[in-house]
Amino acid sequence: MIIKKLKRTSFKKSKSTMIGGLVDYILAEDDDNGKGKLAFAGSRNFLTTTVAAQKRKMISLAEESIQSKMPVTHWILSWQENEQPTREQVDEAVSLFLRGMGLAEHQTIYALHKNTGNYHLHIAVNRTHPYTEKVIQPHRGFDIEAAHKIVAEIEHKQGWVPQMNARYRVNEQGYVVKNLQRREQVKPKPKAEDFESATGEKSAQRIAQERGHAVIQNASCWEELHAGLDAVGLRFVRKGSGAVVFVGNTTVKASSVDRNFGMSKLCKRLGEFKPGFYSQRAFKKPDPEPVSHVCREEWQEYQKERQRLTEEQYHARVKREEEREALERRQRERREAATARLATHGLSMLNIARHFLKEQKRQEKAALREQQVQSEQTQRLPRFKHWLGKRSPHLGNLWRFRKRIAPGAEVMKREFPRVGTLASPYAAYREMVKKRFPEKMDESQLDAAIALYMRCAGYTPQEVANEVFRHAPARPNGQGRSERIEYGRRVVWYAFGTAGDIDIANVLPTEEDILKFNREAEDMADQKIAQSQRGFRVR
Asked: What angle do CA 206, 208, 209 make, to 5 degrees?
C-alpha cells in the first residue's frame, strides 16, 4: 500500500475554489475521458447528509481559519494491482487514518476510485476543528512519517502485502515498529521521481545523489569536497544560509541529496565554509541518462525523436522570426508608400489612412500569431510514459511496473500447455494456494493468486473469469451482478495482464513445478469428493 500527501501548488485561487474543486473531483462519477471512476464514497463528522451541503460546511469552516492558507489536506491511499478493498475495509482504513492523525473529530470526505489499474482512496480532511475552530497540525508537521506507521497498521489488520522496503511493520506483539530489514538508501524526492516517471530520464537530484553522495560523505575538508565534485561534474555553492549542488545549470538543495549535507551540519564536520574553484566540466549540462533498464531501447528512440523535434522547433522558431520580420517589412513599406501618396491630401486624410493601416497591421499580426501557435501545438512531443502507452499498452504497463522487474528478467506473454483436467477447479486451487501461503491474506489477493496458478495450468481467461464469478465467496454485505463481474474482470486482468507476466518472469515456473501444484490441487479435489461420499454412506 502506498500513501501520498498532495501539496497545494497554487495560492492564486481562493480557499473556497480550491476546496470546492477538490470535493467535486473526488466525488465525480466519471474521469476526464468519460470512464467511470467512483466505486463508492463516504463522509465523517457532518451534520448534513447531502454532498452540496457538506461541501458548503467544509468551505465555511475552512474560511474561519484566517492564519492557515489551506486547512484542508488531500491524501491518497493506493492498493496493489491484485488487491480489491471492500467498502468495509475502506471505512476501516479511513477510521485508522483519522485516528492515527488525531483528526477523528474533523470533517472528512473520501472516495474510492477504480479508473486505474490500482484501486486508490482519496481523503480530504479539514484540519480545522468543528467546535474549537483551531487548525490542527498532526504530529507537529511530521505527518508523512506518521502516515507510514498508519499504513503498516492497515496492512496488518486487513492482510495487504506491504510495499518493498516499507518503513514500518507490525511485530508479533502487535506494535508498529521500524522495519529493521529495510535497506536504507538515498533516493530522490517524490517530485523528482514524478519527473523521472514522466520523462524516463534521471532527475538532477538522482544524478547529484549518485555522483556526489559518496564524495560529500567521505570528504575530510572543503578542498577535498570541491575537488571530488569537480571530478564528477558537479559544483557545491553556498546559497543564503544553506547550500546547493549544481548539476549543469540545475540547482539541487544539498539537504535533498542527504539530510546530513545541510550547510550547518557540514560546517560542524568540515569547519568554516570555503568556496571552491571548478573547471569547465562542472558547468557543462550532463547528457540525459535513462532512469531504468526497462524499455531502454524505446527510451533511446524517444531521445532521438526528442532531438529531432528540438531541431525542428529551432528551425520553426527561426522561420517564425523571419515571417514576423517579413510582415513588419511589408507593413513598413506599405505605410511609407501610403504616407507619401496621401501627404498632399491634407492631414485629416493622412490620419484616416494611418488609422486603417494600424488596424490592418494589428489584424495581420494576430492572424500570423494564431497560425504560429497552431503549428507549435502540433509539434509537441508527449511525455515518455504517454508516448509508450500510445505505442503499446503493454509497453506502458511495463514502464509503470518497472521497479518490480528484475534486471535480466524477460517479460513476455507466455502460453502454457493445458495440464488442468478439473471441470470446476476453483475450490481445489483455493485450498492449494491457502496451504502454500498460510499467512493472512485478503480474499482479493487470494483470488488473484488462484487465477495466476490457473493460468500457469493452461486455463483460459474466460474459464478463470467464470470460476471466479460462480464460486468466489461473496464480499461482506454481498455483491450485485455488475460488481461481481467487475471484481472478476480485475482478477483476470491481473493474472493475464502485464502484472501477471512480471510475476511469472520473476519466478519462471518450470513444467515440473506446474505439474506438481496442479497434481496437488487435483489430489485435494479427489479427497474432498471421497470425504463427501463417505459422509453420504454414513447417512
From this structure: 65
* Identity at 483, one-letter amino acid code: E
The C-alpha atoms of residue 490 and residue 482 are separated, in whole angstroms, by: 12
Contacts of 343 (CB under 8 A, 6+ apart): 350
Q: What is the pTM of this model?
A: 0.80
Beta strands in 435-490 (DSSP E): none
User: From CA 485, how far away is CA 489, in angstroms rounded?
Assistant: 6
Q: How far apart are CA 148 and CA 167, in angstroms?
A: 7
Burial class (CB in 10 A: 0-12, 13-18, 19+), 255: middle
Residue pair 122/40 in contact by the 8 Å Cβ criterion: no
Cα separation of 48 and 60, whole Å? Answer: 14
Overall size of the chain counted in residues: 539
Within 13 Å, how many C-alpha atoms sit on residue 515's CB side?
3
**Inter-CA distances, 215 with 225, 227, 232, 238, 261, Å:** 6, 9, 9, 17, 11
Tell me the CA distances in angstroms from 484 to 69, 469, 489, one per residue in order.
Answer: 44, 6, 9
**Per-residue model confidence as pLDDT tens for the chain (539 residues):** 899 998 876 777 888 999 999 999 999 998 888 888 999 999 999 998 899 999 999 999 999 888 888 899 999 999 999 999 999 999 999 999 999 999 999 999 999 999 888 999 999 999 999 998 899 999 988 899 999 999 999 999 999 988 877 888 888 888 898 887 655 567 888 888 888 988 999 999 999 999 999 999 999 999 999 999 999 999 999 998 899 999 999 999 999 998 889 999 999 999 999 999 999 888 998 889 999 999 999 999 999 998 888 888 888 888 889 989 998 999 888 888 888 888 788 888 888 888 888 898 899 889 888 887 877 666 678 899 899 989 888 899 999 898 888 888 888 888 999 998 888 899 999 999 999 888 888 899 999 999 999 999 999 999 999 999 988 887 776 677 888 888 999 999 999 999 999 999 988 899 999 999 999 998 888 888 777 766 545 45
What is the bridge-based pairing of β-strands 120-126 and 72-78?
antiparallel
